[in-house]
Amino acid sequence: MNDRSISPDTTDILYGIASRRSFLKSAAAIAVAGGTVAACSDSSAQKTAATARNTSGGTTAPHPSTPATPVSAVSTADQMDAMHEAGIKAFPARTEGKGNQLFAPKMDRGVKVFELTAERVQWETEPGKKVEAWAYNGQVPGPQIRVKEADRVRVILHNKLSESTCIHFHGLELPIEMDGVPFITQPPVKPGQSFTYEFTVPAGNQGSHMYHSHHNAAKQVGLGLLGAFIVEPKRPRKVEQVDVDYVMILNDGMHGYTVNGKGFPATEPIKAKLGQKVRIRFMNEGMMIHPMHLHGMHMTVIDKDGWAQPAPWKCDTLNVAPGERWDVVVNCNKPGVWAFHCHILPHAESDHGMFGMVTALIVEA
Ligand SMILES: [Cu+2]
After folding, report:
1. What pLDDT shows up at residue 224?
2. Distance of CA 170 to the CA centre of its chain
3. For residue 355, with 0-12 CB atoms within 10 Å meaning exposed, 13-18 middle and 19 or more buried, which class applies?
4. 249 C-alpha to ligand 1 centroid (Å)
5. Ligand 1 centre and the CA of 112: distance in Å?
6. 50, 139, 324, 335: most buried, per Cβ within 10 A?
7. CATH code matching the domain that covers 106-232, chosen among 1.10.600.10, 3.30.450.20, 1.10.569.10, 2.60.40.420
8. What φ, ψ does residue 49 adopt, rounded to 5°?
9. What percent of the chain lies above the pLDDT cut of 70?
10. What is the mean pLDDT of residues 142-149?
C-alpha cells in the first residue's frame, strides 16, 4: 500500500505530487529557454526549480538561499506565469481511467441488475500522478446508476478489498434492511464476501442521489468507493427538460481535491452549444464544503437532495456541503470558455497555477 495515498500531508494535498514534478519540469524548461542553464542536468534543474519556487511567494518552502545570479522580479513573475499558462494549456489533460460512466443494467425478469466489485486499483488523478484507489468496477467515481421512479433494482456487491465494506444508498428512502449500515441494518460484507441489495425505488423519490461505502467511510469514500445514483422521474418537469445532463461529484479525500475523480488540468470540461440548457447535478462526497462558482452565466437552482425547490432561484456561487446534492440549470447564452471552480481558493489554485477543483463550461457558438 502506498502510505502517501492514505495519509497525505497537507503540502501534498495543496500542491500535489505531480504538480511539483511538472513544476520541476517546467522550471527546468524555462531555465533552458532563458539561457540560464546551458546543459541541464537533473540536479541543476532542481536547484533552479528550488530557487524559483522559493521566490514565488510560497509560504511553506524553506527560506531561499541567495542565488548565484540574482533573479529579477520580472523573471520571477515570468516563471510563475509560465507555470500557470502551462497548466491552462494542458486542459483538458489526458489521464488513464474515466469514472462515472453510465452503467447499463442487466435485466432479470423486470429487475434492473447492477453488479459492483469493490477492489484496489491504481488511479491517475492528473497527468503522471497515480494514487491508490478503492473503486467500484475500476472507476472513480463508480459507474453511474440511472433508473426510474418505481423501478425494481438489484445491486450485487462483491468485496475484493482487504477490509469489510457495504453500500448505503444516500437519498433513497428504502426499507431499513437495505440501508447499508453495518451493525445497525446488516452485518459488514467481509473480504471475499458478496451481498445483494434489492429494492423498489419509491415513487416520488426521484432526483440526484448517491451510493457509497458506509463502513470506515472517511477512508473508503475518500479512496473512491462512491458513485451517482440517479432516479429519473416518471413525468419530468418542464424545468428539467435540458440538452445536457452533467453529474459533478466533488471529493477531497486522499486523492486531493477532485471533480469526478480528477484534478485540474485532467478534469473534464462541460460542453454545450450556444442556446442550450445544461443541468448540473452537484454531489459532495467529501468532508469539506465547496462553494462552486461559475463565471459568465448564472445558475438556476431547481432541486436540493432530489427535492424540488419551492421556486427556482438564481446564483453564481453555490455552496455544496458534504452529503448534499444540488441540481442547477444553466442557460448557455454566452459563448466562450467559462471558468468553473470551487471558490475556496486553496482548493483551486496555488503559486504553481490552477489545480484540483477547477473545470470549465465551454459554450460553442
Ligand atoms: Cu472546495
Report:
1. 98
2. 18
3. buried
4. 12
5. 35
6. 139
7. 2.60.40.420
8. -65, -45
9. 81
10. 98
Ligand 1 centroid, distance to 283 Cα (angstroms)? 12
Q: Which CATH architecture has domain 238-364?
A: Sandwich (2.60)
Are 251 and 219 spatial neighbours (Cβ–Cβ below 8 Å)? no
User: Measured between alpha carbons, how far apart are the two ends of the chain, in Å?
Assistant: 48
Is pLDDT of 73 > 50? yes
Q: How far is the CA of 202 from the centre of ligand 1 (A)?
A: 33
Average pLDDT over residues 336-348: 98
Calculate how far, in angstroms, residue 345's C-alpha sits from the geometric centre of ligand 1.
Answer: 7
| Distance between Cα 349 and ligand 1 center (Å) | 11
User: How much distance in Å is there from the Cα of 319 to the middle of ligand 1?
Assistant: 9
Measuring CA to CA, which residue among 136, 141, 360 is closest to residue 267?
A: 360
Alpha helices of the chain — where are they, by DSSP H?
3-6, 10-15, 17-33, 42-54, 73-90, 217-222
Torsion-angle region of 204 (φ positive above 0: left; ψ -120 to 50: alpha; else: beta): left
Report pTM: 0.81
Q: Is 139 exposed, middle or buried (0-12, 13-18, 19+ CB in 10 A)?
A: buried
CA 227 to ligand 1 centroid distance, Å: 19
pLDDT at 149: 97
Q: Which three cell numbers stand for residue 268?
A: 473534464
Q: Could you tell me where in the chain the CATH 2.60.40.420 domains are found? A: 106-232, 238-364
Task: Output the CA 80–ligand 1 centroid distance in Å.
Answer: 23
Give CA–CA dist 104/110, Å, rounded: 14
Q: How far is the CA of 288 from the centre of ligand 1 (A)?
A: 7
Kindly give the distance from the C-alpha atom of residue 197 to the centroid of ligand 1, in angstroms, as a whole number. Answer: 33
| pLDDT tens for each residue of 54-72 | 333 333 333 444 445 556 8
Q: Given a cut of 90, is residue 105 above it in pLDDT?
A: yes
Mean pLDDT computed over every residue of the chain: 86
